[in-house]
Amino acid sequence: MLEKNKIINLAFLKLGEQNQLYNINITDRMKIADTLFEDIINEIAVDSNFMFNARTIKLNLNLQSKNYRGEYRYNKPTDYLNRIWISDRNARIENEFIYSTQDNVEMCYCFKMP
């Protein structure tokens, strides 16, 4: 598995900077690369074309009873980044919950990787 410093080294190598090794204290450009690293990884992770960080789960019911709209409330996964598909096409995501009229919902989503 590639580590953060190896990924940044490869990026600079692709830019033609062969003599600079990753070290957060060397240059301002490396400091910027280090700062932007997490944002870049998250942008890649929400792109469902890659699918390296996708998982399919059965959602956990948060409330057994329905709300005034006739929907069940499910917990949104804590590592959720982006929805790929959900078994109820009419389901909606609101804050940390997913609402659906179905009592059994599965979802495939991109998750945040460590």
Describe this structure in words.
With 114 residues, the protein is an alpha+beta fold. It has 2 helices and 7 strands; from the N terminus they run ααβββββββ. Strands 2-3-6-5 form a 4-stranded antiparallel sheet, with no helix packed on it. The longest helix is centred in the first third of the chain and has 18 residues.
Give descriptors for this structure.
4-stranded antiparallel β-sheet; single chain; 7 strands; 3-stranded antiparallel β-sheet; 114 residues
Broad shape: elongated
- Run of helices and strands: HHEEEEEEE
Structural class by secondary-structure content: alpha+beta
In order across it, which strands form the biggest sheet?
2-3-6-5
Structure summary, number of beta strands: 7
The radius of gyration computed from the alpha-carbon positions, rounded to a whole number of angstroms, is: 20 Å
Per DSSP, the total helix count is 2
Residues in helices, as a percent range:
25-40%
The biggest beta sheet reads:
4 strands, antiparallel
Please indicate the percent range of residues in DSSP E strands (runs of 2 or more).
Answer: 25-35%
pLDDT averaged over residues? 81
How far apart lie the N and C ends? 12 Å
Which segments are poorly predicted (pLDDT under 50) over 5 or more consecutive residues? none
